[in-house]
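Support case: user asked for a sample of complex input and structure output to validate their parser. Sending the pair below.
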Amino acid sequence: MKDPILWMHCTSPELGELAKKNAVVLIPVGAVEQHGPHMAVGCDSFVAEWLAKRTARSLEEQGIPAVVAPTLTVANSLHHMNFPGSLSLRPSTYMLVLQEWCRCIAAHGFRRIVIANGHGGNRAPTNAALVEINLELGFPVYFADLTVALKPTVGLESEKSILHSGEGETSLILAYDETLVDPVYRETNGQKVPAPAAERAGLAATFHRMETKTTNGVSGNCSLATREKGEVLADAAVKRRVVALADEALWAQPV
Amino acid sequence: MKDPILWMHCTSPELGELAKKNAVVLIPVGAVEQHGPHMAVGCDSFVAEWLAKRTARSLEEQGIPAVVAPTLTVANSLHHMNFPGSLSLRPSTYMLVLQEWCRCIAAHGFRRIVIANGHGGNRAPTNAALVEINLELGFPVYFADLTVALKPTVGLESEKSILHSGEGETSLILAYDETLVDPVYRETNGQKVPAPAAERAGLAATFHRMETKTTNGVSGNCSLATREKGEVLADAAVKRRVVALADEALWAQPV
Amino acid sequence: MKDPILWMHCTSPELGELAKKNAVVLIPVGAVEQHGPHMAVGCDSFVAEWLAKRTARSLEEQGIPAVVAPTLTVANSLHHMNFPGSLSLRPSTYMLVLQEWCRCIAAHGFRRIVIANGHGGNRAPTNAALVEINLELGFPVYFADLTVALKPTVGLESEKSILHSGEGETSLILAYDETLVDPVYRETNGQKVPAPAAERAGLAATFHRMETKTTNGVSGNCSLATREKGEVLADAAVKRRVVALADEALWAQPV
Amino acid sequence: MKDPILWMHCTSPELGELAKKNAVVLIPVGAVEQHGPHMAVGCDSFVAEWLAKRTARSLEEQGIPAVVAPTLTVANSLHHMNFPGSLSLRPSTYMLVLQEWCRCIAAHGFRRIVIANGHGGNRAPTNAALVEINLELGFPVYFADLTVALKPTVGLESEKSILHSGEGETSLILAYDETLVDPVYRETNGQKVPAPAAERAGLAATFHRMETKTTNGVSGNCSLATREKGEVLADAAVKRRVVALADEALWAQPV
Amino acid sequence: MKDPILWMHCTSPELGELAKKNAVVLIPVGAVEQHGPHMAVGCDSFVAEWLAKRTARSLEEQGIPAVVAPTLTVANSLHHMNFPGSLSLRPSTYMLVLQEWCRCIAAHGFRRIVIANGHGGNRAPTNAALVEINLELGFPVYFADLTVALKPTVGLESEKSILHSGEGETSLILAYDETLVDPVYRETNGQKVPAPAAERAGLAATFHRMETKTTNGVSGNCSLATREKGEVLADAAVKRRVVALADEALWAQPV
Amino acid sequence: MKDPILWMHCTSPELGELAKKNAVVLIPVGAVEQHGPHMAVGCDSFVAEWLAKRTARSLEEQGIPAVVAPTLTVANSLHHMNFPGSLSLRPSTYMLVLQEWCRCIAAHGFRRIVIANGHGGNRAPTNAALVEINLELGFPVYFADLTVALKPTVGLESEKSILHSGEGETSLILAYDETLVDPVYRETNGQKVPAPAAERAGLAATFHRMETKTTNGVSGNCSLATREKGEVLADAAVKRRVVALADEALWAQPV
């Protein structure tokens, strides 16, 4: 069933119209990577797309034209590659891909592009890529990180910031589509390997393979997850994003 | 609703099981590009994924494990960039992306990978990419081109081979989801610019921007399209592909 | 002995004149790869250059200025690398090289460039490369594939399409220079390994190393080759190409 | 005067000894970019190197062998390029350079490498680079960000986190070498352009050219800077880093 | 007429035999670039190939197996691009190409590879490329520069070192094939633009476009050229090269 | 202590002034590589920077504005990698880095850029890089090679051209800072492995790993080195360079 909020569902003339209206284009960027024994490997992509759609619809309701570009599913998950099902680009390839997507969108006249990110591993390569993207395009492309939008983690018992496959993330997927969560989540929790103090304090950071940080691929307490918590989280994140993207001051800025 | 034929819907342990069973992995590769005034720009991606799913299910029914990888949506559509909504990688970037997807899939132990292509523009870059992909992986990745699977074009009145946004392609989308086709298709037909004889005979081929070959972005007679024709086409293509991929001789071949 | 049809033999001022006359530039692209126990490894390059020269001369006789660029000899032969003597670029390097040659030719003012291809392995990478070449140059560079020009394979007994080192190709080299064919060809024939049905039907295509398809590197029946057959083939191919390239409509086309 | 804490000052045999002792190698990574009307453009590089040397000496005093690699001076400053004197690599080139430096250091047997960063613009590209660096080397290279080490910003009146050319940074340079600070700093303060709320909240982040965020290239209140504040900051940062890097648990971790 | 000294003329089994005999492989590297108003643009390639063939034959006569690889014709001539007919790769592409040719030759078992260079512009990129080529292959590939082999310039009146299109080079082409030299050479001489003293002394060197150094593209006195001088030069160069390449000590060296 | 001849020590406004005055920018390019058992691995970088500073000061004294850019320390030393402490970029990465530094310097308006080279291994990659650098920038960047400036090797007993870690180089470092030379130099001399005649004559050149040419990493007679010899050498080199760079004819040249 056609959903006109989706770029992929629109016809070429419809997208031409959206460009003329200077619509906000949200590019959901997710991941395809292990999410513990209980969640679908695509769940970062599903959440990225789901919340991008809800954000776009909400913007439309406020009279701000918006559209959701195709979801960039396979992104930066090299740290999960030792768990089955994880797929990843190399960071440098990801950076090229993001640049070419943005270049095409800009070529059609769009000037309000948002990377609607749903996966922490994309943060550094996206920010590194935006340097050259913005300089090339001549206007700023914005990075809207889901972790930030979810930050207050309203209603969660065990997380102040979203953890991999934990209470928050599992709740979000339960809210999105509970069939994508195996019931085993009720008996599962993160088997976290404690990090040295220097890492905990952020004084020394690095890239680790995920299996060295959690033996079952889960970082938080997914057994605490509920559908209701997910709905609360999602509502709050969308609201925060809509306020952010509805601000004309954001779009008036030069690179 | 979880669909276990989809890689993205499976959990990591489920994909580990599929690798152990040596499942066939179909990677739908489509496009995001104009399809005339009447069709969704994502339709090549939708058809690629739809038929990959039907092929995988049919293989499963014959006892051959199969799974559908994420769809590579934005691929090779530079020739359509002057029509709104088209998105494309550069061919060299596409080749890198395809190589990295296949590398990851192989890293999990899968040895039966099929590029389930749904877009003509992907043909040359995919074949060029497979040279290095196969040499790197040590087993052959197969390219299953939809145009070939659809070749007999059973039931079509105006096409012997599938044309861009024409009778066949529009019929397929009507069969897939008719809400993705604007009713204007009934009054629309290809505004083809005749090609010189040398091009028609294949003696001189080249890359043209689509607007130089058809002013409205349509190459065939979409007004002849019907849902029924699309169903016949799709059934036949899936059947042909299933026979092809069920042949053990295919998988026994070295690079 | 100076042959003014050859770019390499002309002086700089002579090439300046040819550019002013808007001459057709044919770039022979061949291969350096095994051709069975009987043929010189350079034979694809020799035939590409030979037929390009005959085509150019014939165009000149019709009053159409033409010149033959240096031959790109080492191209796409990674599939033959397990046979001694084969040399190859990686496809991505080949694509860069082709782009840089065309860029230089265009920089001198030429606007009619033809890739006069003599080797099947160049097809996909050349077509992939032309996407960016044409967009960069702003005019279409044409790909003239020898296999197409030879297609009717007039006079051959065992081939409907030219096979590697078979009746047609061996006949062509006998016609070009019979000293480049070892007499062993009379007792040699292709030791073809049968392909699975899916490959034969084109439903699943891939890149194979040549030794998996023919143990002696020959695909057809070279023992049927004769010099006369080669002359007939060559004459027909040149005629077809000349008709194609003499058509002003070809050159009037935009990218 | 030879300073044996510096890699560049050591002889080859001395570095061979350090490798055998499994010394910690600190790579100072700075920047060459405008720092307002008052500070030397190299000051991020000077501070990075200065604090790396003090950290290394302090580690040595605790019996932990350490050495300071050459300083990577020109790094990621494209956002400052519209101010005279700024020099920068492209992020992708920076990532290659970092990888090759680490590869060489590891080739000599060192297994404890720390990127001692002194410039915020290096954060994303360094983190993006570490993905492939760690996977290639097989042990984790650590990123020690100065901003984090300085975080409590003890003794500063106007900054909770270090700002570009502000109170903290100017104090650090005064402490390092006050001749590198033009007295004009006493009458200078940041001419900050207020950011939209969404950016302030981190909900939408992007790369901006520095002149759009501060017209004189200064973000904080440099007029509050003093040499003493700089000494306090530097002492604290070195102490924190030494504690972090002296922790054996850090070095015991796999990638 | 088959010339078995040429790689391109040999069959695959013949090249397999040559590899077993550890034959010396000479790769002629030339140029396609303007050579004044009087010489064919391919002359650097012709001389490179001609002298490589003579060197190889002479080695064979001494019992040292040798073969001449295809000639790399289009190489490093960006400095000549403002004269019609010049063709060039970018240096970085040239370096890739050279690496891939050498990799293939080595893959067939050859361990004695010589770059038989005939063009000064190839010197720096070839030497830069050999760093990675030798490290990859594990044995040294040698660069035999024609300028050095011709250095004593025996018999020349106006040149102590070979100049572009001057007395020596024109004599060589007269000796190779006088039809490739336009008689205008007798009335032509270099229209050299004097270089600053610093350049003449080598204290400051750079890349200049050729038209800034000589307005007619000629650097020496071609009017003094004779066929006989060319023969003397060629004989001497071949002799010197043969002595060099016949020395077993050269081939015994590691990288 | 601020040294205004150094780019890194200047403020942004000071560099803006220097650009307006069209100052000469010297980029010292050195190396980080073994220099025998007696010298600091950074000595090529130290000498490159030291002599660049003296050259710049001398130019300033003649009324020619000049400034010394940051030193490119890690450059082309892959041939030394088997000796501890050597660091190197790949040649192709070095070429990118050099191009980006020059691009930035030119972006600020400087038009007189000099690569003040202090290491032989940088020669080929720098010259290869200058082809594209000059074409991109539109003005010539000059390569000032220290070996040439030192060529007469005034006052040396054992060297006519500077050898690696020999009499000349060790003398230079003694003159620069004798604490960077271990007294062991008095008992050390090059353990040179004799090269084949063809290499000595330059007829066959290649890239060798340094340990194959000298077992202790020293090529000359460092035991003959004295501080006084170094001062004489340095004075002469600086004088020669100043004369070269003070010549307006050099800067008037186009690419």
